[in-house]
Amino acid sequence: MKKICVVTGTRAEYGLLRWVIEGIRKSAALKLQLIATGMHLSPEFGLTVTTIVEDGFQVDRRVEMLLSSDTPVGITKSMGLGMIGFADAFAELDPDLVLLLGDRYEILAAAAAAMVARIPIAHLHGGEATEGLIDESIRHSISKMAHLHFVAADEYRQRVIQLGEEPERVFNVGGLGVDNILRLRLMSREDLEIELNFKFLRRNLLITYHPVTLESNTSAAQMRELLVALSDLGSDVGLIFTMPNSDTGGRALFRQINDFCEQHLNAKAYTSLGQLRYLSCIQYVDGIVGNSSSGLSEVPTFKKGTINIGDRQRGRLRAMSVIDSEPNRTSIRNALTRLFSKEFRDSLPHTNSPYGNGGASDSIVKNLERASFTGLLKKRFYDYPVK
């Protein structure tokens, strides 16, 4: 059996990996190894490793790396701790392949450690563009360290090939977020209200806003603009906030959201909703507001509207259900007006997601079962045809 070591560092990333992990565990040809790191091991961010265990998975190694600091120095030091921890974990587990998703600094540390250890890497969701984040550079860097690629759209496949990756090693499997929506049995409105201790109002919004890591000292200012626009909606609109990730400047946003919720009875914040409650919320709210990739990759499958604020997701494929907004109160107010308009709501049933109709998890597992890992390490640079 081929030993596949999956690394996960955040609640959102684990949600995308959930069915890939399950498929590897059930495979007769693959043996699952699982490493939890980053926010999963932090009480400040919800200690979400417990969710992984509650889902029935054995966590083989826990790599502590997250310092209680969201400065550039603190995050860089966290990456250094991560590389040390992953070096030990990979030496002990001796996997045949390391499977990594996405573009965060925890995953970059894991990729660097696997590369030096001469362990092949499979990279999921490469080729995407997020021009407002350091994640853009991290994602492409991991793609260059990886040996197998599973991407979410043909445009992203072409981009990975442009990076010099051989076409026969790049597979368009669609978006993993769609699988979660199709496979999970979502909660009823009543059960969700009990779980959240939150009563849905006549209209409701789900807000997820993360720092813009390629800009200095702008995230807090942009959050202020968003909160002003939301407060103008009045007390008859329910506001459900999910807290930011452990990115540069994230803790300032934590404080702003908590202060806002203390002053507005119609608003409530959650450190981590988890995938089931998060997706169930999307089912019952009128729209999603913020700058999370979920608003572009998952929400269109629900045929719900997304207000995408600022540059954080600039460059990603988007459905017609996405309303782009500048990070100022006037633009956000205009976007909210459009989101609630009859014309826009009538258009939502015709939404088509650019991330496919599901099946990505099964496709990844089947490709891993079929693939020979012999000779993967020595890559040939593919010279992409110049148009």
Describe the overall structure.
The protein is an alpha/beta fold and 387 residues long. The protein folds into two domains: 2-174 and 359-370, 3-Layer(aba) Sandwich (Rossmann fold), CATH 3.40.50.2000; 185-350, Glycogen Phosphorylase B (Rossmann fold, 3-Layer(aba) Sandwich). It is 42% helix and 16% strand. It contains 15 helices and 13 strands. It has helices at 11-26, 49-54, 72-93, 105-116, 135-145, 154-162, 176-183, 189-196, 219-231, 250-263, 274-284, 294-297, 329-340, 342-347, 360-370, and strands spanning 2-8, 30-37, 61-63, 97-101, 121-124, 148-151, 170-172, 203-208, 237-242, 267-270, 287-290, 305-309, 322-325. The strands form two sheets. It has a seven-stranded parallel β-sheet, sandwiched between helices. It has a six-stranded parallel β-sheet with strand order 10-9-8-11-12-13, with helices on both faces. α9 (219-231) packs across α13. The longest helix is centred in the first third of the chain and has 22 residues, at 72-93. The chain is globular, with a radius of gyration of 20 Å.
